[in-house]
Design goal:
The complex is a heterodimer. Chain A has two helices and six strands; from the N terminus they run αβαβββββ. By secondary structure, chain A is α/β, with parallel strands linked by helices. In chain A, strands 2-3-4-6-5 form a five-stranded mixed barrel. Chain B is globular. Chain B has 19 helices and 13 strands. In chain B, strands 5, 6, 7, 8, 9 and 10 form a six-stranded antiparallel beta sheet that branches. Chain B folds into four domains: about 160 residues, no CATH class; about 180 residues; about 130 residues, no CATH class; about 100 residues. In chain B, helix 10 runs antiparallel to helix 11. The chains are: A alpha/beta, B alpha+beta. At the A-B interface, helix 1, strand 1 and strand 6 of A face helix 3, strand 1, strand 2, helix 13 and strand 3 of B. Strand 1 of chain A pairs antiparallel with strand 3 of chain B.
Chain lengths: ~140, ~675
Amino acid sequence: MNNVSAKAKFVLGGVVIVAALGWLGFVGFEESKAYYITVDEYAALTEPREGRVFKLAGDVVAGSIDRSKPQMEFIIASNNKEILVRYVGKDIIPDTFRDGSTALVEGSAAPDGTFHARHIEAKCASKYEAEYDKRTTS
Amino acid sequence: MASFGNFCILFALCLSGYALLAALIGVSQRRQTIVRSAEHAVYAATGAITLALFSLLYLLLTDDFSVSHVANSSSRELPVFFKIAAIWGAHDGSMLLWVFFTSLFCALVVWLNRFRHRDMMPYVIAVLMIDLGFFLCLNVFISNPFTQLAQVFPDGSYQSFLPTDGRGLNPLLQHWAMVIHPPVLYLGFIGFLVPFAFAIAALITRQLGDTWIRTTRRWTLLTWLFLGIGLILGGKWAYVVLGWGGYWAWDPVENSSLMPWLVSTAFLHSVIVQERRGMLKIWNMLLVIITYLLGIFGTFITRSGIVSSVHAFAASNLGQFFIIYMSAVLGVSLILVASRLQYLKSERRLDSILSRESAFLFNNLILVVACFAILWGTMFPVLSEWIRDTQITVGPPFFNNINVPIGLLLLLLTGVGPLFAWRKTSLESLRKAFLLPSIFAVATCAAVLAAGVRNFSFVVCMTLCTFVLVTIVEEFYKGTRIRMSSRGENPLLAAVNLTLKNRRRYGGYIVHLSIIFMFVGFAGNVFNQEASGRLAKGAELTIKDYSLKMVDYREGAGSNYQYRRAVLDVYKDGKRIRTLEPEQRMFTAGQQQTTTEVALHSTPKEDLYLVLAGVSRDGSVDIKAFVNPLVFWIWFGAAVMFFGALIALIPEKGRIGSTQPELAGRQTAGVNPGV
């Protein structure tokens, strides 16, 4: 190894490190990847839904949040397509999650046609925001 | 007042355009007076923007809801402190704050260098003004905080509209950490404009030795510090306010502020190699360009809505302008670098893999790989949509799988790097240097294993932390001993003087020390525990060796919210240690947001973290409890980092860098003391 230049050793070391990290990244990617689609796109899927992790985006239908059961249930909708979601995760429901908010639920399809969500994210209700229109007057 | 504010930013835009032209004309015609007028225009633009900011503040404090930004981010009952913070509580005002900070930096740079670098400064001013001008354009034409509300009628006519009250500041932002977090982060993004401007000026004027690096070293360090503190503040806020039990979620907006921090850390280290050995000149140029662009990219991700994030800034059409600007800057910078390659050749090569240069090279490699991986993961939904027409998101396992090993490698380099000599380290000196740290490291490893811990990352982390800690302590010890024997100072005085006389080196060691503390804090994650339960009055929830007894449930009102509060007595090993009162708050104005107020009992060993998840009709409360070990050390480490960076920032007496411009190709004998 005496004839191998320091630069070559660095390059070799670098390649080993990057390759190892790349492999770890790939594993992590496969573990966590989720298809991010809206509820109506999900309803229109022709490919099988089993075995894939989805992140569904939809608006929480007003009045549908049911916290009385041990696992909270609610309905999200987009473009007139709805789906019943059962929350099977352990995290606390975010404060932003309520009627009309845009919810992102990550999980997978249950055999009974509902969606079992392991994670919920929610954003401020865009439809219900009274966003003031902006025009200059002069 | 709104028209006045509007006029001010428009005027500032004109001034920045003038400054850009005057600087370039002045330098091409070699007329110093024209360049001076450009400098004056920079000061004037800063003044105009300051006036605009004060106008917005006035409008907020006087509850002028005819102005859209005021109506969107403030309300009558908002406490004065938060009315001030409402400047950056919504999109438009935050752009004005951004522009304000940028203009301050521009004025400061111009003023500090008013007698120096006369050849580079016109180009520095030009670059500064292009950046300022871009953001001012966004501010004036797209995100104008002074636009007034209007009611639009079906026939297309409109009249002004004055709501009785504003929508209020998002309650999630009504917390001290969230008030400081955006300004500090902005300072962290914006500050890299200065080293970038000097780098471009150095390329144009062919002064490609160390001048541009040494002149901007403190800017880079200060900006790096702001960015780091901004990141920590965001984490602290997430931990204490969002109430999900953690402080970092690999959210796209979080990632976008981490990326410039990573490459600027790489840059802070690689410039040392250029100063010492005249190597990595092209690499440093590329790094500073990437750092600047990542800062712009960061604000682009946050504002454009291109990647979905819980940081729900409304999506706007700003995205395309950012993309055009970033592409143009990247293109021009790369062309400039390519045209100056002959002046950027390394003066020396890598002599040995066991050298400090080599350690810095590995440091840079893994920091850049980390940044790239995070960029990849963050932008993957956009990429996958582009290629396969469906968005695929990537979650924490991806980011953690890559970044935990990278963190451990960095920790190793932090300990090992300073032990290597420049050029080549003899195996003998390595053996001596590694001996004591290794002994302690192995002892720690054995102790951790003996305690029953089997988590690989945790064991490695603690082992390496010990190794690095001992190397740092040894450095201080050796230096202090020398001062004591040569100058007869007592140990404390010697240590203090040692640090103050070699600020860059020992300030750096203190920052490394802070990293150790923070890594210990991160490692605690491995042993997080949680428990939840529904508690009626008198019932208890057990977690680890704590017992939580539900004592009372109260409802009431605060200044602009109503609350629901659980009162819980905390028992540890049978003794009552304190009472914790987790809360939910419902804010009445505008968005009717609910927030969680976490109840926290924090000790260096662990945090007991309680959340009121819900209340049932019979008055029993749903409590979620976490025990998060070692979190305290993250915040403690952040304070140490702040302190260490401050020491390194203290300016030298007298000027660094002569007033003579360097000729291309002639290297000043750059041996810096103490590094």
